[in-house]
Amino acid sequence: xxxxxxxxxxxxxxxxxxxxxxxxxxxxxxxxxxxxxxxxxxxxxxxxxxxxxxxxxxxxxxxxxxxxxxxxxxxxxxxxxxxxxxxxxxxxxxxxxxxxxxxxxxxxxxxxxxxxxxxxxxxxxxxxxxxxxxxxxxxxxxxxxxxxxxxxxxxxxxxxxxxxxxxxxxxxxxxxxxxxxxxxxxxxxxxxxxxxxxxxxxxxxxxxxxxxxxxxxxxxxxxxxxxxxxxxxxxxxxxxxxxxxxxxxxxxxxxxxxxxxxxxxxxxxxxxxxxxxxxxxxxxxxxxxxxxxxxxxxxxxxxxxxxxxxxxxxxxxxxxxxxxxxxxxxxxxxxxxxxxxxxxxxxxxxxxxxxxxxxxxxxxxxxxxxxxxxxxxxxxxxxxxxxxxxxxxxxxxxxxxxxxxxxxxxxxxxxxxxxxxxxxxxxxxxxxxxxxxxxxxxxxxxxxxxxxxxxxxxxxxxxxxxxxxxxxxxxxxxxxxxxxxxxxxxxxxxxxx
Length: 497
Hints:
seven-stranded mixed beta sheet; 15 helices
């Protein structure tokens, strides 16, 4: 750790601050940490490390800004948040360049998917807050009373986001938190903090009042620990690993702070005997996107025994044609793994699986393109209770198992500790019947990646607690209040009737 000498980083011609953003201003630190690019391990620069005094300042700023921000009408917040969305869009090139260099995310995916979605994450929830307010005013009518249901802002919210999709997942949480009237502190991922820093510039340009949004960079052990243990926090929203979630939940429990936890998965990708093999194989190859660092990817291929060979042939053809390389190149389809530690983790999973008897159908080792690249890998001859089937790898590694009956399939699909997503290819009625029996938060039929911000997102079992999206986001970020107005004069009575 060392003191920052230059507060700005210049990446691909775009400038981003390495300082915190607290109470509407950039704030330096006596300590910092370096940020590396997973593309070629070059140092991108140093960013400020959030110390306890920075956390305290950010919480104080958010708490002081809360009364005025929460008192604004949903329509007034909507106008500001729409400007925020516009400012994100105006910085599209910078967001794309920063996240591609910082996190190794495909530049093409940033341009066509992530940045437009980031803007929508802000504007959609600003609009939804207005409709939620209008719907609440319709009230609940009973014989005795009118119930006016209100969604009141909870207070100061902490958002902690992961390194695999920093911009998309931060705005996904930030949109409803701000639209509900909360003030927010974002703790960006240590390995990829730069797009979160640029969000502060967009917020300031949009006229978001000082203290409403604060960005404090740092490590989980120092910065994150101070944030989640503070009694002034009203909500914690986290996406990341199960061990970190347990630690956060334990710290939050001391003050009974509600947590929303999205914790990844080990989702089944089911191929029924009546599936379109080519379509299923093409979609299965998508599971290697973002170097497999996608929580909702279907990493366990469960294929009917009668079509295994046909499916493997079709999938191999797609995988062989994947372009692996620099994520800044438009043709690239599989980029680098985020960090050397993660590369070693992925490599260790594969080596232990092979030592336990797994067969490598393709891949299985680091890729020659660079130190943080790993070959798209498919392993078979794996036992249901093996580590490679039961544990989340978070890399470009899939397993393939076969089944003979629907009952056997359901047992295999559900026999893991995770339950986030899933994919099922087959005749629609058959696939839907299977999907309804899989223990998971969501499952796609003959498709993958279709999402709508109005729909619930989240998992069961170790994949997390809570749902995000539409009304579900506001149920978490708000205190729901029932104002009860009687329809006839009320007289207190001690009657037990």
